[in-house]
Structure formats: C-alpha cells, structure tokens
Amino acid sequence: MIARLLLVAAAATMLAGCGLRPLYSGGSRGAVATQLRSVEVAPIPGRAGYLIRGALVDQLGQGEGGEMRYRLEVELDDQISGLGIRLDDAVTRERRTLRARYRLVDAQLGTVLLDATAGSDAGIDVVGSEYATVAAEQTALERLSEMVAQQIVSRVALYMSRAPAAGQ
Prior knowledge:
Strand content: 25-35%
Strand order of the largest sheet: 1-2-3-4
Distance between the termini: 48 Å
Number of strands: 4
CATH superfamily: Lipoprotein like domain
Largest sheet: 4 strands, mixed
C-alpha cells in the first residue's frame, strides 16, 4: 500500500515537471476559451460553407456575448472523384475531399495572425439507387464539415494559447 502511494507521488512529481499544460485550463472561463469566443466567423459560400460555419460557431462559442477581436476567414475546396470503375465505365466508389484554407485576422488591425489549412476525406460506395448515393454524399459532407471545423478550432486554440493575450 505504501509502495503504491510512493509510486503515485513520484509519478505526479514527474508529470508536474514535464512542461505539459492543459489547453483549456480554467474551463469556459479560461484564457483560451475566452479568446475563442471573441472570434467572428465570416460567411462561407455554399452548402459546405454553411455546414462548416455552423460547426465553427458552435465550437468557438460565438454569440455568447463579448467583443469580437478576431475574424476567421475560410475558403473551401469540396471535390468528389470516382475511384472504383467497372468494365462498363460505371463508378462504384467515390472519394469526397473537403479542404479549407483559413486565416485568423486581427479585426482591429487587419493583420493576418494565422494562415493554415485543414482537410479530410471520406469514401462513399456508389450503389444502384441514385437517392442512396446522394444521401451518402451529403452524410459524408456533414461528417467532413465537423472534422475540418474541429481541426480549425484546435489550431486556433493552440495559436491563442501560445500568443500573448490581447491587452497584456
């Protein structure tokens, strides 16, 4: 029993000195979460843009009051390409790729603080029913939008955790 306590105490001491710190320390009132809420997401054209923007607004906590100090500008590239092709030239498998180039801009100064890309792809089976194929393509777009938005928010949060807080 004492050996276990000593082992736990030693592990806690080693973890404290490793330099890791939680990105969202302080929860919803922490520095990173507060800065994320001050990011305004610019309109993004198209269905994919609508889905990504909605996911970004949800994940950033936008609209919960406060001054918008940053603007997030996103450009999308949404592609569907045929992969599996039968002898009769019919496509049996598709690949949907969603890529985003995004920029975090200081709203007051207009300077670009972060310029990066995010993306993901999904495979889609093409079946005999055209309706089922279209439904699968739309479902893939919804999933990809959530994943790309999560990548963007994670990268912006990492940037904000390393950058000095505004006004300091």
